[in-house]
Amino acid sequence: MKIIEVIDLKKNFSITTPVLEIEKAVVKAVNGVSFHINQGETLGLVGESGSGKTTTGKLLLRLLEPTSGKVLLEGRDISKIKDREFRKIRKDLQVVFQNPYSALDPKMTIEDIMTQPLTIHKIVPPLEFKKEVVRLLNLVGLSAKDAKKFPHEFSGGQRQRIGIARAIATKPKFIVCDEPVSALDVSIQSQILNLLMELQREFKLSYLFIAHGLNVIKHVSNRVAVMYLGKIVEMGDAETIFNEPKHPYTQALMSASTVPDPNIKRERIRLRDEIPSPINLPKGCAFHTRCQYCMDVCKIEEPPLITVEDYCVSCHLVKESIATST
Ligand code: SF4
């Protein structure tokens, strides 16, 4: 069952002159993205900074208005509904932020922080707030006595547990996990990832998991989408993407990830240049300025996104092989 479906989603940002606000340029941050996430599933979203991952997450949560396209929550288009209508389903969509410290108000106790979503969304009657806060803290591995403390009294990992407890307080269906472990020590990261997966199993949660770290994505994802300059260039089940990446950009990202088995030697593919500016997207394939396999056609013609069942890729090089193998 599809919890979230995204159809041809686009988000442009205008760059205007200071006083007259005349449009100088348009940044195509998200440029025609489509995917879905099933109930209880995690879609990992990877790509360099500037690829549009976080903007995509914000569009799904309606923290940003899309320029065009649709976001469906259980089949209902939520991208254009009125704010008053959206407030009723806001509780179904939650987020776990990258920085657990800045995400928690330092002047509030944990109990007050946790009570806010319970109050706003009327999750339990006021008389049950205290009991519910303790239940949520226990779910994330904290105790009742932690409710009276302030955020600064916790470690980074504990603060992220509180952030997760707050996210699940509204009994959501879908959570955007935006780099939730990248600010934590490596020793703590796996504890938080395991907690997120336990909660997913228990409550059938669906996650969009945004991360730079491929090992993190591999650990948690059922499927993986690779973004480059606002577009998905390859998407498929995690095993296929990690073991047999077909797009040259995915291959370069995978080559930079660590391999746990010392007997496996992976040749590092070094990308030339920086990611181009999304203000001035390269013609043809947006990756052609950095691709070691670039052909003449790549500089002129944008490769179509070829879809075969749950797998898709956008590259002239692999277009032929996919077409002939099916
Ligand atoms: Fe490289 Fe061409 Fe494929 Fe783009 S379309 S990734 S430039 S081979």
Task: Summarize the topology.
Blueprint: E1 2-16, E2 23-38, E3 42-46, H1 53-60, E4 68-73, E5 76-77, H2 83-89, E6 93-96, H3 110-120, H4 129-139, H5 156-168, E7 174-178, H6 186-203, E8 206-210, H7 214-220, E9 223-228, E10 231-237, H8 238-243, H9 248-255, H10 296-300, E11 306-308, E12 311-313, H11 316-325
Parallel strand pairs: 3-8, 3-9, 6-7, 7-8
Antiparallel strand pairs: 1-2, 1-4, 4-5, 9-10, 10-12, 11-12
Helix pairs in contact: 5-6
Concise description?
The protein is an alpha/beta fold.
Task: Please tell me about this protein's structure.
A hairpin with a 2-residue loop joins strand 9 and strand 10. The chain has a single domain, classed as 3-Layer(aba) Sandwich (Rossmann fold), CATH 3.40.50. It is an alpha/beta fold. 37% of the residues are buried. It has an eight-stranded mixed beta sheet with strand order 6-7-8-3-9-10-12-11, sandwiched between helices. Strands 2-1-4-5 form a four-stranded antiparallel beta sheet. It has eleven helices and twelve strands.
Task: Pick out its properties.
single chain, binds iron/sulfur cluster, alpha/beta, four-stranded antiparallel sheet, eight-stranded mixed sheet, Rossmann fold
